[in-house]
Amino acid sequence: MPPRDANWIDGLRGIASFVVVSGHLCTALVPWLHSPANGPKLAPSIFQLPFFRLAVGGRSAVAIFFLVTGYVNSIGPISKSRAGNHDTAFMGIARSALARSGRLILPTMAATFITWTLANTNAYHMTKHVDSTWIRQGWHRQEPTMWEALMSLVKAETETWTIGWNDYDGTQWTLHLFLEGSMLVYTTMFATVMVKPKARMLIYGVLYLYFWQLGLAIGALKGLNIVMGMFVAELHNHYKDSATSVLPAPIPALMILVGMFLAGYPQDNPQYAHWSHVMLKMMQSITVEKADVRRYWDHIGASTILLGIFFSGTARKVLCSPVFNFLGRVSFPVYLMHNTMIKSVLTWMIYLPSAMNPPKNEKGELLDLQRGTTMHVFIAIGVFYYILYRCAALWIKHVDPICADIVNAATKWAYGDSQSREPRPILGNGHVDKTVLPS
User: What is the pLDDT along the chain (439 residues), one digit of tens a residue?
Assistant: First the structure.
């Protein structure tokens, strides 16, 4: 894998990608952990408590991806705007906007092709019979003819970007929102390149209020986080290297802790615990009717964490470590492949013993396949993570360069000139400052 400069934004995105995977594992195997307790009068388990529940809560991690998208895609244009290099800023926006679609769509198409191939070679047969509702919902039949299989592939590849759904991989529903979010950044940057930083801050405020009152989950997930990411990019260009010395040392750490608490707002049944019920009532009082309260708390918690890290030299240093730098480099292929591997590799490991001796009821009728012992499941998950990240590293080494070459060739033809390739991450990709980790 080609080396890339350590970057704290990369590290943050790598953690978010890991948490998304753990969140889907939780949904598949222990969905009750998404509640703050198993009942209104029952004591919570350790992973249902604040802070601990972040290990199995992927929703706030998705919010971080959108924050990173807004942040890294706007750093370059903001920097050039502040320096008065307006022509260069416009050119950068134009080039990024043209290349962005290909750099996001091509790897996603490759991932869809892989899961389509597995489905149509009957590799998902076992998922139809397991005792996990989430895994079972991910089952896709083997098409009866090659023509129907090809038509289903075209449908999945297209609808990922039109209606936001992929029949072969439901976790790709966010990808068209990442593309839309990037275009929101480029549009905002294009409209504000000529304005003063204070005026651009005012525009951020107006956009933020618009998405807040929208009330829809998409507004809270995409709009609020994209705008906040651009705001933090503005802070970066304002404070530059002095950002980590702006606030007294305890404050950034406190912001990170508060953000982690807020980001732990439960996905299900917030009324089962006093702390989450208070948060529910509080957010309902300041949002429009029928707003998706969960997405608002995801946004606020993730934004507070991002701001805390932005002002903390220690947190940045930790996120620049080799481990987090690696997690960041492979974050996009991990995001693309994890659901496919849950439905295949992990399902095979967990349910194979039961499949070899299918359980039956008293009438001799087949029952859902049962998972192995707790130790069996833990070992399977450990092996699953190793295979997932190993495959992601191979993806970065072999698949990403091919996608980059295709995009570069297309943009070179469109521009009519040569263009050098810069290996960058996909989710949240943009002009990343080299002194400062995308989704």
Answer: 444 555 899 999 999 999 999 999 999 999 999 999 999 999 999 999 999 999 888 889 999 999 999 999 999 999 999 999 999 999 999 989 889 889 999 999 999 999 999 999 999 999 999 999 999 999 999 999 999 999 999 999 999 999 999 999 999 999 999 999 999 999 999 999 999 999 999 999 999 999 999 877 788 899 999 999 999 999 999 999 899 999 998 999 999 999 999 999 999 999 999 999 999 999 999 999 889 999 999 999 999 999 999 999 999 999 999 999 999 999 999 999 999 999 999 999 999 989 888 888 888 788 899 998 999 999 999 999 999 999 999 999 999 999 999 999 999 999 886 545 454 554 554 444 433 333 3
What string of DSSP letters covers 318-381? HHTSHHHHHHHHTHHHHHHHHHHHIIIIIHHHHHHHHHHS--B-TTS-B--B----HHHHHHHH
- For the entire predicted model, the pTM comes to 0.91
d(CA 63, CA 292): 14
d(CA 90, CA 95): 9
